[in-house]
Design goal:
Elements: E1 2-6, H1 11-26, E2 30-36, H2 40-45, E3 49-53, H3 57-61, H4 64-72, H5 77-102, E4 108-111, H6 116-126, E5 129-134, H7 158-174, H8 176-185, H9 193-202, E6 205-207, E7 224-226, H10 242-249, E8 255-258, H11 267-281, E9 285-288, E10 303-306, H12 311-314, E11 320-323, H13 327-336, E12 340-344, H14 349-358, E13 366-367, H15 373-385, H16 387-401, H17 405-419
Length: 420
């Protein structure tokens, strides 16, 4: 039986699928991974078959639209959805073409948010099996702790579940472009809201999240499996550059600051803000350049500009971690057992920021448009000096490291496939 894992997005969207793919392969399944063409070399080097999306996600994120979406969305959720729809419409045609090409390459399709309805349609028409592999909790629920878009996050109340369905209805309008492009090729009528909601809420679902972070609520059906994180552990032998090793050995553990795949119109200004906040908080720092291409001339000796290091290697060596709140980065920071703080740009990032703080493992999250030197410096001071947060972060890390997310996911997939 051949399984195709579909990862459309940044490395943070693809890397958990590579980890899951290794677990499935070890269990005897034939596995291929579909992702942007910029990930082909990496995925093939891991020994997987590769199915390309002929869209370079990073290149799209560096366009003016991508920078507006990722860099400006924290101001206004409506603008965020508008920009997301513009991006989805822009890539609709090539994505539909690629999905049609992929449909005969596997028996089982495991995908995430962007392709929910198109894959649901394809698998129904072609007699394939469909499983959702989600990295964020989309399913509506009364629970504030498990509801990504809860109106009353500290409560368990019906209005949270109602709001979840409302958000899903808005997402249908945002993402109908790829779905309708594919349906047109199949001579089917355009997708309806009810079809999207059915695909999102009735398809067997894996959530690659720790149940400590997203506690499974009572009103989720038994088709939703909260498995634990899907961590890639293939970088144990990774070696830092001599410059990075020298920096880490030269003093106290530094604070990591990085916004991952979040591009920006002002990389120089963002970098300078980080530098000034580190100086003000009197901390050494590692600044990750990321997709934003952050750079600075004449960095002070107590700050290192990093191109790349695996999170599982780097984060345990940090005093604290400040990041954008991507699902994978959040999980990696929690697993490392060090305090963290999230600067939320868009999407699910405010949810992760809220949950990290509610677990007592980090600072209250900050929205990107509210970030200032003083706000960042205060956040850094808090997560590097508060002993309660440090103890809580260490306890959360120990709990997460004990989980078997990939094993749980592989077993859940087996149960789903046995039921047909």
């Amino acid at each position: 039986m051949r399984i195709l894992l579909i990862g459309f997005g940044s490395r943070g969207d693809v890397q958990p699928l590579v980890a899951l793919g290794k677990g499935l392969r070890q269990a005897g399944y034939e596995v291929a991974i579909a992702a942007g063409i910029n990930f082909q070399q990496w995925i093939e080097s891991e020994g997987f078959g590769f199915e390309p999306f002929h869209v370079d996600v990073e290149a799209y994120m560096q366009t003016d639209l991508g920078k507006e979406w990722l860099g400006e969305s924290s101001h206004n959720p409506r603008v965020e959805l508008q920009n997301m729809k513009r991006m989805a419409d822009l890539i609709a045609e090539p994505v539909a073409d690629d999905l049609l090409r992929m449909v005969d390459t596997a028996d089982v399709f495991i995908d995430g948010l962007i392709t929910i309805e198109p894959i649901a349609t394809l698998t129904r028409v072609r007699g394939k099996q469909h499983i959702l592999g989600m990295l964020s909790p989309l399913a509506p629920t009364r629970s504030g702790a498990a509801g990504m878009q809860s109106l009353l996050p500290r409560s368990e109340i019906f209005i949270n579940r109602w709001w979840g369905y409302f958000i899903e209805s808005m997402l249908f309008k945002v993402m109908e472009g790829p779905s309708n492009s594919l349906r047109k090729r199949l001579n089917l009528s355009p997708a309806t809201r009810s079809e999207f909601l059915r695909a999102a809420n009735q398809t067997p679902t894996l959530l690659g999240i720790s149940p400590l972070v997203t506690p499974p609520p009572a009103d989720w059906g038994n088709h939703i499996h909260v498995t634990g994180y899907w961590f890639a552990n293939g970088n144990a032998d990774w070696q830092p550059s001599p410059a990075l090793k020298t920096f880490l050995d030269a003093g106290d553990p530094p604070v990591y600051i990085g916004f991952g795949s979040m591009s920006t119109r002002d990389p120089q200004g963002t970098t300078q803000l980080m530098i000034e906040a580190l100086k003000k908080s009197k901390q050494r720092g590692v600044i990750h350049s990321g997709w934003a291409g952050l750079h600075a001339e004449d960095l002070p000796p107590e700050i290192f500009l990093l191109d790349y290091a695996p999170h599982e290697w780097l984060f345990p060596r940090m005093k604290a971690v400040v990041h954008h709140g991507g699902a994978g980065t959040t999980g990696a920071a929690l697993r490392a057992g060090v305090p963290s703080a999230i600067v939320a740009h868009m999407g699910d990032q405010p949810y992760w920021g809220r949950r990290v703080h509610e677990l007592g493992a980090g600072a209250p999250f900050v929205r990107r448009h509210e970030l200032t030197v003083d706000r960042l410096a205060d956040t850094i001071r808090f997560i590097t000096t508060d002993t309660t947060v440090q103890k809580n972060a260490a306890a959360v890390g120990e709990r997460i490291r004990s989980e078997d997310g990939i094993g749980n996911a592989v077993r859940a997939i087996g149960q789903i496939l046995d039921k047909g």
